Amino acid sequence: MSATWRFVAFPLTLPWRPEFWSLPLFFPDLKVGVLWHWPAGVPFRGKPLPSSAMSARDFRDYAPGDLKQWQAYQEYSRSQEEVGDIVRALRGEPAASEVAEEPWMTEEALGLAWQLEVMEAEQEAQLAKVDRGEKWLAEVLAPESWEEPGDFTGMPEGKEVLDPETARLRYLLWRREMGAFLGPESAPLLLSRTSQSIFTSLRMEAGKGPAPLVRFRMPGCRLEEEYQAAKKLEVAAGWQSKFQTLLEACLAAADQGADMEQPAQELTRWLREELPRQWPEAPYWTWDLEIWGRDSEVAEGGEALIAWGGLGKEVVPG
User: What values do phi and psi take at 249, rounded to 5?
Assistant: First the structure.
């Protein structure tokens, strides 16, 4: 498939979810960072974790419930350095103060950022198990067709608070490590529970409201056998090129701040009417794809992007 746009997975360290068997069908040229326990059959190849990601304090000592995003900063606050100095070091800029007793060095800032990334990946993997458990419990307790629906609605969906500085640190690390793939026609593909809130937080910190977005219902795979069956038919039908063309039309509009209604309608019609005829069987499982519009006034995180909708609970920047 000839692609004009480059799609780059966000975040940098990405834990495996069975739903991701759908990704190679729609994004065969996806650029990825560290693939956290991904199966060998997925045709993406990631990069290894650097040694600095597991140096100093081992964040795996934390229990899943203790993996709060502010704890990493608490561990390093004894140096009395400002978080702004860490961010400037990631950017390659000099520290605000030249006379600090223990100024952050670039390798120290990178080590901290990588350790935060590992901590978040482990929490993401744990929460993915919780999500699957809730779905299984809802299916088990679902009423039979002849029964009146009960009051069970699953576990309450509490809001998770995201620290804005953590969001900026993870975003800067991603840009630093994946910069070779980023350019005028590239878009992050958000693939974690908190990734959407990271970009929302960056935009809100710049005084901007929610980004305009369009949402599409996509057929998907959750098993390697399903992926292989769909891939064989795609080779014969060649629908990836058509999907790429329609998706890029939406992204071009989003990147220019234009109205996405017309290209979104064309992609929706193709997904609803044409793609099902080229799928191995009627898809019994679907997922949501979102396209967010660009905000040129936001320096960090204001680019047009695409996101896997509904991967996690509601997350609010705090």
Answer: -65, -40
Quickly list DSSP for the chain.
Answer: ---SSEEEEESSEEE--GGGGGHHHH-TT-B-SEEES--TTSS----PPPGGGGSSS-GGGS-GGG--TTHHHHHHGGG---HHHHHHHHHTPPPS-SS-SSPPPHHHHHHHHHHHHHHHHHHHHHHHHHHHHHHHHHHHTPPPTTSPP-S---S--PPEEE-HHHHHHHHHHHHHHHGGG-STTEEEEE-STTHHHHHHHHHHHTT--PPPEEEEEEE--SSHHHHHHHHHHHHHH-HHHHHHHHHHHHHHHHHTT---HHHHHHHHHIIIIIGGGGSSS--S-EEEEEEEPP-TT-SSS-S-EEEEETSSS-EEE-
Question: How many residues belong to the chain?
Answer: 318
Q: What are the tens digits of pLDDT across the range 98-139?
A: 434 333 346 767 777 888 888 888 888 887 676 665 555 555
Interstrand relation of 186-190 and 13-15 (parallel, antiparallel or unpaired):
unpaired
pTM of the full structure: 0.76
Asked whether 306 and 229 are in contact (CB, 8 A), the reply is no
Exposure class string for 128-157: b at 16+ Cβ within 10 A, else e: beebeeeeeeeeeeeeeeeeeeeeeeeeee
Nearest to 57 by CA among 116, 124, 137: 116
Instruction: Output Rg (C-alpha) for the chain, integer angstroms.
Output: 21
- The β-bridge relationship of strands 186-190 and 286-292 is unpaired
